[in-house]
Each structure stands twice: as structure tokens, then as C-alpha cells.
Amino acid sequence: MTDARRLVVPVAIVAAVLLFLLINPWFPIESGSTLSTIVTVAFWILAIAVIVLMYIDSRDPAAPMVEVESPRFAKYLFGNTRAGLFWLPIRLFVGFAWLEAGYGKWTGTGWTDGGSALLGFWQNAVAVPDSGHPPITYDWYRSFIQWLIDNDAQTWMGVLIPLGEMAVGLGLLFGALTGFAAFFGSLMNMSFMLAGSASTNPVLFTLAIGLMLGWKVAGYYGIDRWLLPALGVPWRSHVEAPRPGAPPAPSASEPPAAAATG
């Protein structure tokens, strides 16, 4: 057993305990306290360590491969090139939504001309009303948005966000690195939702998750049909195994069986 395999389980258990301390509703740690900060930082360090240890273990050629078999239809939906026909309309829908959103910001006002619209969105998001729920639920994300405001990040993010949205849209429309495009699209959806904006983000986020799961075939009817094999992710046909009881095919080195004589 490798060192990575021995360490990953106890590290993951400690990370789970720290997460429980942060989110449990019965005896929660006071938000914003020193203890809360220490536990949060420790959890993220251990969570990253778990991912690194799992990656090291996966690279070990001696590590046993224990895999849970997926349902046949799930394997077909996420791994068969014909399933690209299912993902094609989803890809186009999400792609056009991102391209339209990005182009509207790029050609409109308040984004590329200083980011005033983005700044107003951030200021509304970090506001904490006297009664009711604030737009942002998590304090760490409110602090992050406030840090962006304090550093005038809207001046460059007002340009970056429209460019990113159009890049995601074009990647999905043309089926170029579909999995990556869907990932960055979902990341922006999550950022908008964390800031309290629903709009179309929940729908686009859900569809993006499907496109990421089907990354191997979602862009098959697009540039990925040639791009992914060129990058080293070729498609190949599945060769059926011989049926039980069927005689094995003779090898080229074996002489033909002698004819029976009567």
C-alpha cells in the first residue's frame, strides 16, 4: 500500500469533521470568529490535500482498480458518439445564451466603459438589510466581493466577463473543448448565484453539468470530433467479447485441424 493510500482516508476523515463543525446547525462555531477562520483554513488545506493524495494514488501502477459499473444507458449517454445528437441541442441552447449575454454586455454601457453596471451589481449584492435576508448568504463570498469593490476590479472585470461569456458561447456553439467551455460557464453561473442573482443561471448551470459529464461526446457533432483525437482522446469502437461456450478463434501460428477420415 502506498503512502498516499494510507494517508488519504485519515486526512479525509479529519476534513469531514472540520466541515461538520462549520455547517452543523446544533452547535455552530460563531461566524467571523478566530476559531471559525482557523477551522475554515484547515478544512480547505486538508480538502486540497485529499485531492492531491488521490491523484498520486491514481498514478500508481500497482494500485488496484476497483470501479463501480455504471448503468448501460448512462455509459451510452456519456460515452457513445451517437449520444452527441442528444447533447447537440442542449449545447446550442446554452451556447447561444452565453453568446447573447456576453455580446449584450460588450456592446452596451456600464461594462467595458468603466464597469459601472458591474459595480452597482456588486454594491447591491454586499448590502446587508436591516431586516430580511441579504443577497449573499456566505460571509466569505461577501468579503470577496467587497475586496473586488475596494480594489476597483470592475474596471477590468467589466471587460473580462463579457469576453469570457462570449468565449464560452462560441466554444459550445462550435463544439470546441466543450467540457472546458461548460466548466467555465458553470463557474460564472455559480458566481452569479452566490451573489444573489438567479435569472437563467440555475437552468444554465444544470445543463452545463450535463455537458461536463458528457464532455467526450457532447462536442462530437462539432470541432471536438477532430480536436479531441488530435489532443490524445480518440474515440474507439467497443469489441464484443466472445459469447460463453463459443470456441476460440484459431491463432495464425496454429496448424489447421486435420480432416476427419471415415
Task: Please give a quick description of this structure.
With 262 residues, the chain is mainly alpha-helical. The protein is built from 11 helices and no strands.
What are its keywords?
mainly alpha, 2 domains, 262 residues, flat
Structure characterization notes:
Helix 8 runs antiparallel to helix 9. The protein is flat, with a radius of gyration of 26 Å. It folds into two domains: 56 residues; 160 residues, no CATH class. With 262 residues, the protein is mainly alpha-helical. The chain has eleven helices and no strands.
Uncertain segments are: 256-262
Task: Estimate nothing, just give the exact number of structural domains.
Answer: 2
- Number of extended strands: 0
Quickly give the structural class.
Answer: mainly alpha
Q: C-alpha Rg, in Å?
A: 26 Å
Q: Average pLDDT, to the nearest integer?
A: 86
Binned, the helix content reads 55-70%
Element order: H for helix, E for strand: HHHHHHHHHHH
Distance between the termini: 61 Å
Main sheet properties: none
- Please, how many helices? 11
Shape, per Cα inertia axes: flat
Oligomeric state: single chain
Strand content: under 5%
